[in-house]
Input
Amino acid sequence: MAEPILEVSGLVKHYPLTRGVLFRRQVGAVKAVDGVDFTLGRGETLGVVGESGCGKSTVAKLLCSLERPTAGTIRFKGEDITRLSGKALKAVRRNIQMVFQDPYTSLNPRMTVGDIVGEPYDIHPEAAPKGDRRRRVRELLDVVGLDPEYVNRYPHQFSGGQRQRIGIARGLALRPEVIVADEPVSALDVSVQAQVINLLDRLQAEFDLSYVFIAHDLSLVRHIADRVAVMYLGRIVETGRESEIYDHPTHPYTQALLSAVPVPDPEAREHRERIILSGDVPSPTDVPSGCRFRTRCWKARERCAREVPALAVPEAFRAAPGPAAHPSACHFAADEQPGRRTESQLNGNGPG
Ligand code: ADP
Ligand code: MG
Output
């Protein structure tokens, strides 16, 4: 792998859960992020995927130093950035920028596009001499495919896709090395999603950027991610190269997510297995013991309630290197899969 630019280790973010107004007392914790480890290589894209509420945005905020972790470290080019303050914190924030999920709410409607894109220079005046800002803002608009003549317009005068380009231009203003894109296309029409993803792809090569690209849908990150991490209830349950995850998923949760991705070909659709998970995602205030996925897992056995599975290459796949030999937090990743049902069985056409 490329030289690491971000190394995340044992990352935890718990929000206190309080009761009472007059006598506020802590009655528990929302375990939004509960032990996350990953490495991002320079120039690489890591896709982080998981259902709503699994902790993706919290990871994004921690990476961008917008929140402080409860525990764990985030190393940026070797240096732990989780305990920085003052000038050092400001400097690292410059280097790791966020692109937000919803371009409709993240852009101030009363500011012109020029002011929005140039705002980072107000916070970091050292990044651009005052007399040079206008020229830079125009260049940034050009870089993201917008007409520089638009500087004096307001956000409502743009489409969703254009607004996200404005958000991306602002993210680039300080020439960061890492961009954390938190569901950057989720709020956009399907028809413009690919355009924005292609733009991010082009900018990555042009500006030597490393990406953490967050999505709730595995199919969205397939074409941009070099590696993928699948999250469930505050933890990464499986991670590997793009082809390993899509073609050889070994965690039951990833298998279930992939089985739900729409397949255009009716022939393929009939033969593939559709895995239906039982129940709902448990609350992050009340995480199951042992494997946190066990309450919805068709493979769950007694051991799963007792023992937290480590995110490691499963024993059975270690001996024979191949696409299945990637980290997966399941005690029974290599076992046969009882209880799975195909689409046709679900429709009542097969033995069930
Ligand atoms: P995602 O982006 O994957 O949808 P989030 O990181 O936004 O997930 O949230 C993870 C969990 O943490 C959710 O249950 C959410 O309600 C909770 N959460 C997020 N931010 C806070 C906060 N500031 N205070 C309390 N709970 C929070
Ligand atoms: Mg989110």
